[in-house]
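SEQUENCE-TO-STRUCTURE ENTRY
===========================

Subject: a protein chain together with a token-level encoding of how that chain folds.

Sequence line: the amino acid chain in single-letter code, read from start to end.

Question of interest: how does this chain fold, as expressed in backbone structure tokens?
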Amino acid sequence: MKRNVVVAMCTAFIFGAPMVSLAERETIAIIGTGDLGDSLGQSLANLGYPVIYGSRAPNSEKAKAIIAKTGKGAIAVSQKEAARRGDIVFLPIGWPAMETVAKDLGNLDGKIVVDPSLPWSQGEDGYPKVSVDPSSAELIQQWNPGAKVVKAFGTMGSMIIDNPKAAGGLVTIPVASNHRDAKERVAKLIDEMGLDPVDFGPLRMARSIEAMGIIYMIPLIRHQKAEWEFYFRRNADWVCRFQEEWADPVYDADDRAVMPSSQEPSAPCP
């Protein structure tokens, strides 16, 4: 899914305020130097985040080439060292290698850990299917109970990270986590990258996000000429039709994540 396109400019405001200042930008650890990993690293480095790649071979020619391409002071170290030094740790690792990597990163307590992976295998009918249970993100959380695992970036190709405008419009990134603060922080990153974050709720919803990743792959499996990207258009139809019922309390009303506003407000009720 890799395409060589220019890195898009980040959006100018988050939550109605200026972007995160350079002094406040956390160190980003990218564990892995594959297709999605180098796209994430380059995009975040261009936004001013310090980037550290975690590689099994940090002195390899491949790692050196990615460092040179990323620039902005990016470095490569071992996977465990990158996770130790990173404030936000991305795991763009395929399965089944993910299990070994995610269990061997050391103490991740308090760190935001972003899982963009799609654990899949090919079914007997040729179509893809999810290959882990209950989900990749939930397993990573079980293996690292002190981490703040966030499921995101698993429903689009790396060319969208390289150029958010490649699809001709906004691309939606579903976000799920049991940690509100981590979910909101990752949503800000997504918004800075020119993408559209949507709150999917608790981490168990990673199962649905990974199922979306399977749907995303269908055109590739079928060798279709037309692909697709997810875009959730906002509307307020239910709010308008059920205003009284909508006023009732909901389960997470006091702890609901606040997402950046990447789209125009929904039309007012008639």
In short: The mean pLDDT is 88. The radius of gyration is 19 Å. The first helix runs from residue 35 to 46.
